[in-house]
Amino acid sequence: SDGDFGDNRPILSILYDFTNTSGEPLEPYIAWTACFSCTQETDVTIEDLDAAPDPEAYSSESEMSFTNVKDGATVQSVMSYYINYTDRPVTLTARQGVFGDVLGEKIISFE
Question: What is the spatial distance between Cα 1 and Cα 42, in angstroms, rounded to a whole number?
Fold first, then answer.
């Protein structure tokens, strides 16, 4: 990819099961954005990936992302990101809240 960041960037969609254990209704999108981030590295930068519209194929999971889920309930949701460079991997980082400790990372490669 040339990294021109036009509207035709490919999209990475991550399907996930969300179980609300907060004690109150919570939208999966709020929990996801507080605990996960996606980045791509170049030779000199680490770039946060922009959220992207969810593909139509995931319309029910997308709708669930912005719905209050009852405490104790589990739903399937989706989060999508624009990929800046198809020739570089994406790093998905999980944290214990926005400024919390890193819990783990997953490298996603495109081949």
Answer: 12
Q: What is the DSSP letter of 20?
A: -
pTM attached to this predicted model: 0.87
What confidence tens digit (pLDDT) does each residue in 68-108 have?
Answer: 999 999 999 999 999 999 999 999 999 998 888 999 999 99
Q: Give yes or no for a contact between 31 and 66, defined as CB atoms under 8 angstroms apart.
A: no
Measure the CA–CA gap between 11 and 78, rounded to whole angstroms: 12
State the residue for tokens 């399937």.
76
Question: What's the chain's length in residues?
Answer: 111
Q: Which two tokens stand for residue 42?
A: 């170049």
Q: How far apart are CA 1 and CA 95, in angstroms?
A: 29
Helix, strand, coil: what percent of the chain each, to 5? 15, 40, 45
